[in-house]
Write a structure and sequence with these properties.
Radius of gyration: 23 Å
Structural class: alpha/beta
Bound molecules: calcium ion
Helix content: 25-40%
Number of helices: 13
Largest sheet: 10 strands, mixed
Length: 559
Amino acid sequence: MALGFYGWCLMISISYAQAARPNIIVIMSDDMGYSDIGCYGGEIDTPSLDSLAEGGLRYTQFYNTGRCCPTRASLLTGLYAHQAGIGQMTNDAGQPGYKGDLGRDAMTMAEVLKTAGYSTYMAGKWHVTKQLKPDGDKSNWPMQRGFDKFYGTIIGAGSLFDPWTLTRGNKAITPDNDEEYQPEQYYYTDAISDHAARFVREHVKQSKEAKEKPFFMYVSYTAAHWPMHALEKDIAKYKGKYDAGYEVIRKARYEKMKKLGVIKDWPLSPAPQAWKDFPEKDRAWELRCMEVYAAMVDSMDQGIGRLVKSLEETGQLDNTLILFLQDNGGCAEDRGRRSLANPPTGVKPMGKDELQTRMVPERSRAGHPVLTGPGVMPGPSETYIAYGRNWANVSNTPFRQYKSQNHEGGIATPLIAHWPKGISARKELRYESNHLIDIMATCVDLSGASYPKEYKGKKIQPMEGRSLAPSFTKDRSEERVLMWEHFKNAAIQKGKWKLVQLKGGAWELYDLEKDRSELNDLAQERTEKAKELEELWEKHAQRTRILPRPKSGGRKKKK
Ligand SMILES: [Ca+2]
């Protein structure tokens, strides 16, 4: 059939539009503070991320939800976490916002981008379902929620040498029995990076038709979530780096951040403990915790470097939007910071096919007991230790509070955007306020997808966010309203004002332009503003399924 002139024009414009659509890669790390990576002020060596920032944009006011699973639910769906069904953890706490399983009236970015012809890949941590059993219901696992390929973990935490719920596609595997991936030494961060790079190479090796499709990839690291597990070669690089103690490192970061422009001249929030007050006998152990933490971040950055190289070598880098962000702030949890009362005895090596069934293993695959507490030097698989509150405070420089809370220390994250073909800015900063909900809107915008109203017979909630694309050129001035809630930590931001409460306590009011460290509470001074924001929070809380809250409080008993 002859196409005629207009037919040809249409063909050309369609193929141009398709060729112009970028690949999209969202990289997220786990339990890291706003100041950890080099281009946001940290002393940790992150040349790959720094180079992405040099070639693109850094957003200085981007927000997550403050905790692993709600952040992933929000990121994947473009909704607030409660709307996606995961306001707290991945257990069913009863109310609609707290089902602990990704809702069916929400779509993942992979599902939406597939409707626009994208190939979809994922490597890393899923953590948006309560269904963990390898022989159970997998309807909310990555392969059933829009991904063509998946390598990673279904649950939120575990050993980095023997991850709990390690899965390829839909199949439970162990580091020892996975025929497709047998590195010299298994380390989860490397495994995630290697699979991300492999998916890129496999994508371009496909048939010509398949290769011309753009792809979406979600790379969800567990670095640097506890336990402090890293490879000795990476830890060695940081030996002695933190010997000066918390205050010196924190001050150096603070000054560097101001110089970089990622913070303004806000005061430095107080620290929970001075270095001189930390017990001298345990200082070598405390330093080692931070050295391993830095090594975990370093190793992730090396992996991101390998991913970028795979894009370069396959000619994909120029038309790939890479976004890097963190899922919540530095983590003050004290997991593994006390010695075991009864260390396991008589443990045996694990068989090749024996699945890891614990978040905290009692033995390594080689058959050594897993130990915790001061004196047990973290790093290897036979240890399970968090880096603790004091280092988390350093990670969160200059902000207050930690992971799971809605003060800036809990919810502020770097966001790096790199896309040579689509972002002409180089090494620029953006100061406007954005949130996880905006990533879906950005994907829809750039892919040309039309966001469905219905999917698989279910009505789909509309997206909450706005596309980042206009900010690729310059900051926008529109006044935004953003919401947070997690275990009765709550906040609302409207323009420069933020109302925030800790565990259901009194509302505090801050002027974020002058005081993003949240040290000067204006709630008593500006009562009308506080009241206005509180009413707005209540209104949005009804709409976004924060309310009604679970009757039980919703916490699952510790295993
Ligand atoms: Ca996390």
